[in-house]
């Protein structure tokens, strides 16, 4: 009987900074209100990193919890991939800082930049390494300190984002090559650089020698998001022969409740099968999906052998989906 290498999630971890910023607090210094923010985004609060909390520190906290969940020690990991748009330094990578923090002296570590789609891109990359046979235990992390690139006087953007990190451990396991296998069944990634002006940061090493601030055309992003998300999820169905009725949980990027709800409706996935954390986390970019996974695993909603659909869309534009059996 032929066996196929599958990439099975065996542990999850999440970390959110202690400091909470509510809509009411933002309303004391911006022309906004809790009602206005909730109506348009579904967000009620977000976590903001302390001055001494870097992206790598958040990522390390999440990684340690994921390792504990998987019953692994750091030296068993042979690859770390961190998805982030807010690294500690221009270089070295956040992943190498996590590697150091965990006490790892072997293996390889690198970052991926695909903004809010970063975790999906990192997961798809890890899948390729595992299926090639070159690596067996991979730590995939999404970590962000978006508070560092927000213009806190711009009410259209600063109310949306928060800081945090989420992580998963992927292990190589034998499967039969069917959709009944545990692990990642299919991934689909896309990008289109024509849309840069709709969602970008107006600074950078080569352009302005400064960090810059996040800029966004919200209506344009919303207009493209639902169609793009639907396309890559349809690709996953076509690749596997599965459909929305087979999905146990949709775990979307937590950008905006209205985008999530519109996407689920278009895909005929009932909201009771959607994991929402945007209300309490805000948009944590590459961290949002692994954070949502960790919440749903720990509260018992996501269980072994369930079929999970992940999807995200972010600046660039980038977008992607991953379908896996837990």
Keywords:
alpha/beta, globular, 326 residues, four-stranded mixed β-sheet, 2 domains, Peroxisomal Thiolase, Chain A, domain 1, 31% helix
Write a compact overview of the structure shown.
The protein has 326 residues and is of the alpha/beta class. Helices cover 31% and strands 27% of the residues.
Give an account of the 3D structure:
The structure is a single chain. The chain is α/β, with parallel strands linked by helices and 326 residues long. The protein has two domains: 4-175, Peroxisomal Thiolase, Chain A, domain 1 (3-Layer(aba) Sandwich), CATH 3.40.47; 183-325, Peroxisomal Thiolase, Chain A, domain 1 (3-Layer(aba) Sandwich). It has nine helices and 13 strands. It has helices at 23-27, 34-41, 55-70, 94-101, 118-132, 218-240, 257-266, 278-281, 288-298, and strands at 4-15, 19-22, 45-48, 79-83, 108-112, 137-145, 163-175, 183-191, 199-201, 214-216, 249-252, 307-314, 318-325. The strands form four sheets. A five-stranded mixed β-sheet has the order 1-7-6-4-5, with helices on both faces. Strands 8-13-12-11 form a four-stranded mixed β-sheet, with helices on both faces. It has a two-stranded antiparallel sheet with strand order 2-3. Helix 4 (94-101) links the parallel strand 4 (79-83) and strand 5. Helix 3 (55-70) packs across helix 4 (94-101). It is globular. The protein starts with a strand and ends with a strand. The model has no long low-confidence stretch (mean pLDDT 97).
